[in-house]
Amino acid sequence: MNKPAAVALPLLSVAVLALGACGSDGGGGSGGAASPTADSGVTLQLGSTEAGKVLVDSAGRTVYYYDKDQPGETTSACTGPCVGLWPAVPAPSSPTLGDGVQGKLGTVKGADGGDQLTLDGHPLYTYASDKEAGDAYGQGYGGIWWVVGPDGTKMTTPASPSSGGSSDSGDSGGGGGYGY
Q1: Which residues form a coiled coil (predicted)?
Q2: What domain range is 144 assigned to?
Q3: Residues 102, 119: contact at Cβ < 8 Å?
Q4: Which end of the chain is less enclosed by CB atoms within 10 A, N or C?
């Protein structure tokens, strides 16, 4: 009887943490202290990472492009398990660009059927392992995920060894992983 309890408690803890993380990805939660960007009314703005100045969402999370997405498509190419690791940046009703950000905002249908924000026709994502402002652990992931520069283009400079995402569980399969 003690053995099942010893197994169930850690599993319950993991489930609670996972649900908490899911709730914070929506951008509308009230967990933690609000960053200055969350109140600015700006959907995309500049933030600093080890990769340099990049686009971040209203919560300060680094924004990424996915090479398998094609500009002008009406849906995101990130589906299935990809969505859990690479959440879509949801499109607010009136998206805006911050100072120094170039490009045209739009939307596509995300895997969940909701509107996903695009920049110059490219769907935008965050990376689940980026936990704090300034994290860019998804940079160069699988050779197909890239942070977005201030001019709206993907930045293909690899992440530095100190930020290289190897401490997360993303590349679970080696080679293919969830790089898709």
Answers
A1: none
A2: 40-163
A3: no
A4: N
Are the CB atoms for 82 and 144 separated by under 8 Å?
A: no
In a domain, 169, yes or no: no
* Model pLDDT for residues 3-25, shown as the tens digit of each residue: 544 444 443 343 333 333 333 33
Quick check: is 145 in a domain?
A: yes
Q: How far apart are CA 49 and CA 42, in angstroms?
A: 19
Q: Is 94 contained in some domain?
A: yes
- Are 163 and 140 contacting, i.e. CB atoms less than 8 angstroms apart? no
DSSP secondary structure code for residue 76 in this structure? -
Nearest Cα neighbor of 55 from 166, 145, 168, 151 is 151
Mean pLDDT in residue range 123-141: 97
In whole angstroms, what is the distance from residue 27 CA to residue 23 CA? 8
* DSSP codes of every residue in 28-55: ----SPPPGGGGS--SBEEEEETTEEEE
CA 58 to CA 54: how far, in whole Å?
Answer: 13
